[in-house]
Please model this.
Amino acid sequence: MRIGVPTEVKVDEYRVAITPAGVRELSAHGHEVLLQSGAGAGSALSDESYAAQGARILPTAQAVFAEAELIMKVKEPQPSEVAMLAPHHTLFTYLHLAADRELTESLRARGARCIAYETVEDARGNLPLLAPMSEVAGKIATQAGAFMLEKPMGGRGILLGGVPGVAAANVLVIGGGVVGMNAAMIAIGMQADVFVFDRSVDRLRELEVAFDGRASTVYSSTLAIEEMLPMADLVIGAVLVHGGRAPHVITRSQLALMRRHAVLVDVSIDQGGCFETSRPTTHSNPTFEVDEITHYCVANMPGAVPITSTYALTNATLPYALALADHGIEEALARDPGLARGLNVQDGEITYEAVAEAFATP
Model:
């Protein structure tokens, strides 16, 4: 099979969908990897390093799309890339369609088969291709939040861990999944006072053990969040609905409960955002204020650390890419029900229930 890897063109995106090690494995299985020249530059990977492992370097994205059958990317296709998709293509990337009707309709119109990393499941119902980027995003969320709390950045001017004689900052993490757990771990490491909210008591028990009692766990309800907001310095939104739009856990009216110049970090922004006042931002312009509350809503947080993220992503996606290439798309999907859960669009139809529900579409 011919696998195409174009350069990412989303603003401030530096990751690439495969490493030279991934190229080596695909080549060893008899497949051809077509890489756009410079695709790995943002992750400190040269064309020569890819070519040495068997990749064929092509000058443009158009050349890659023209020859490839399977297109591997990191972020959702931008309009210029959507225009190059054809019915014979299979697109394998993060899509987050439930929060983007325009992209969904554009992909339907192109007729390509689209498999979303974020809805592929393993045998236990976990999300193995979302997990590594969730780990990165969770850790970045706390780092970014701590930085944005500094006065020159518009924050309250509080140090996350405090010092002897001066209290540490209060960090609320709403959502105890992979993102929330990693965000809380970094906040604990920075010696903040940490509160993790989740609706699963079983998950809260697991977090109690994982954190060894160094964070407080709270059953998530509207009242519980409202009671904590007045003392929050940093709130990290880490809510996930598999493949669906994120619910709002903090409304605009609730911002009035918060300290002025506290910080909200919305890691759910790819799925529409879990704060009512959220809107996507970029690494170049990461924040905005609503009612004197700083919002950090960068839609590709792991893109800030592309060396870490690119390798972590390839580690997760490579077995699935090999399955798709070795067996062919239809056979691979038939063999692995979890991989089939990744299928979001095919033959102009939405094939993932949560996306269809988001747009009231069959």
